[in-house]
Amino acid sequence: MHGADGTGRAVPHKKLRGAQVLEFFGQFPASVVAMEACGGAHFCGREIGRLGHDVRLIPPADVKPFVKRQNSDAADAEAICEAALRPTMRFVPVKSEETQDAAMVFRVHELLIRRWTQAIRTWLPQSCSIARDSRRASGGNLQ
């Protein structure tokens, strides 16, 4: 966790894990909390938002230019903090559980269609070849 006050000055940062995150943010008055957008960020964003904070998710591609040194959690947190302070930064809205569920159903549906198409495209040439060979073997008199 990397923080900054209203002027952009860094405040003490802390390494948090799992349940510590909600305990930590529960101790503070409502403030802006910025995170890099990913699958888990939407869950965390919803939970932190329920504590009264304004959660802002930043696309990973928009955070990358702000990383100053080797990739680490601390460097990423600092880059996210710096990116969030930019007035022109665009944010991703936190997805509701219903939206995430609908997206998952859509992805599974798309996957099933791709697999079905793949299976048909594998099976069809083989079945046509078998039918053609059967016609030749029977002299073309298949009934």
Automatic annotation (TrEMBL):
It comes from Palleronia marisminoris. This is Transposase. It comes from the Bacteria. InterPro entries: Transpos_IS110 (IPR047650).
